[in-house]
Amino acid sequence: MEISALYACFLECQGVTTDSRNCPAGSLFIALKGASFDGNRFAAQALAQGCRYAVVDNPEYAGTDSRILLVDDCLKTLQQLANYHRRKLGTRIIGITGTNGKTTTKELVSAVLKQKYNLLYTQGNLNNHIGVPLTLLRLTSEHELAVVEMGANHPGEIKALVHIAEPDYGIITNVGKAHLEGFGSFEGVIRTKGELYDYLRGKDDSVVFLHHENPYLNGIAQGLACIRYGQTPGLFVSGQLTGCSPFLAFDWTAAGETHSVQTHLIGSYNLDNALAAAAIGTYFGVSAAQVCQALADYVPQNNRSQLVDTGRNRLIVDAYNANPTSMMAALQNFRQLEAPHKVVILGDMKELGPGSVEEHRKVVGFLDECGFERVLLVGGEFAAATSRYEHFADVDAAIAALEAHRPEGCFILVKGSNSMKLSRIPEHL
């Protein structure tokens, strides 16, 4: 089926779904395949539940129903349809990627831009080869701007995503040691994130928002129109930390005027994310007062540097993701916070490849310097790295230990990769 013909069917629909358990009336169902499922099998069910059309790539399931549309490859069709739709609307798009902070930066940028614009932005972390197309297919003619987050764990993935989204503006929050198993090396991380810059370099009138103090990003930004932000005076937006006990407070300056913000963000490492949002908002004409209000009102969700008061303890819950860069940043920030009793609960950092144990040893070395009152480590990588601290094979064993010896009146950092399931710990504290 030609993409133009499919697009005509898409325009008759009320959105797109790839989940036969969630079929809003009048939507377009696209049958994707996974390791343990084949969406083709559910096409008829999706139609019965209210979808207007169903797209399949297996003739066996096409049948005689004219509402079932046969294509060569449903995933490629989803991506082509999203790109076709993006081109038809011509909405200005800001692409965001980076090792750490991209989701928080996306949320902050979106909070700021919503003050002035009808904005579409990535929901949650739908930032991969499926999530990006689904985000683009939510665009309507009413949207004035879009913020699209792009994630990757292998070379070439950002390149593929930017050719679907075709952003006009871009920001790489930072580059760090994450997904090294897929990227092969830190240099591989830089090259892959830099695929966003590579795309924008070849596009007329593109603009990059550049963290001025990041040497890796400066090193790959040649030939780009850059709007710079950071802590160096005199940039388009510059800022300085004014407090972090535990919530981030900072001053930021643009066009010679300085403004103060008290946020609900935990961690001095969020200063750069907030400055990025201030820079992008200022560039797009959002007033300084609106920028400040949006940043002050934003409250993080989904286990991303959340402050939780359980009644018995105060927790910083950062259990959505972890890599050497974000782990060290979280520990450095926690070390600086003033509290009489500090406890650290860390889970393994995943997808680090052959150097994983060494990276975990570096974290342990820093823990040795910090002198926290109690340290609990969860997972096999930390077990291979040290025997000096309490260690547990999995989160259930850690929970049992915490229930046997309950912390009281402590400030507790909980951080690890999502697959370690440390997000289950707070309810037991």
UniProtKB/TrEMBL annotation:
Its main location: cytoplasm. It comes from the Bacteria. Residues 96-280 form the Mur ligase central domain. It is an enzyme of class 6 (ligase). The keyword Chaperone does not apply. GO terms for cellular component: cytoplasm. Residues 304-417 form the Mur ligase C-terminal domain. It catalyses: D-alanyl-D-alanine + UDP-N-acetyl-alpha-D-muramoyl-L-alanyl-gamma-D-glutamyl-meso-2,6-diaminopimelate + ATP = UDP-N-acetyl-alpha-D-muramoyl-L-alanyl-gamma-D-glutamyl-meso-2,6-diaminopimeloyl-D-alanyl-D-alanine + ADP + phosphate + H(+). Pathway: Cell wall biogenesis; peptidoglycan biosynthesis. Residues 14-85 form the Mur ligase N-terminal catalytic domain. Its EC number is 6.3.2.10. ATP binds at G98, T99, N100, G101, K102, T103, T104. SUPFAM superfamilies: MurD-like peptide ligases, catalytic domain (SSF53623), MurD-like peptide ligases, peptide-binding domain (SSF53244), MurE/MurF N-terminal domain (SSF63418). Keywords: ATP-binding, Cell cycle, Cell division, Cell shape, Cell wall biogenesis/degradation, Cytoplasm, Ligase, Nucleotide-binding, Peptidoglycan synthesis. Pfam families: Mur_ligase (PF01225), Mur_ligase_C (PF02875), Mur_ligase_M (PF08245). It is found in: Cytoplasm. The keyword Transmembrane helix does not apply. Belongs to the MurCDEF family. MurF subfamily. Involved in cell wall formation. Catalyzes the final step in the synthesis of UDP-N-acetylmuramoyl-pentapeptide, the precursor of murein. This is UDP-N-acetylmuramoyl-tripeptide--D-alanyl-D-alanine ligase. It comes from Phocaeicola barnesiae.
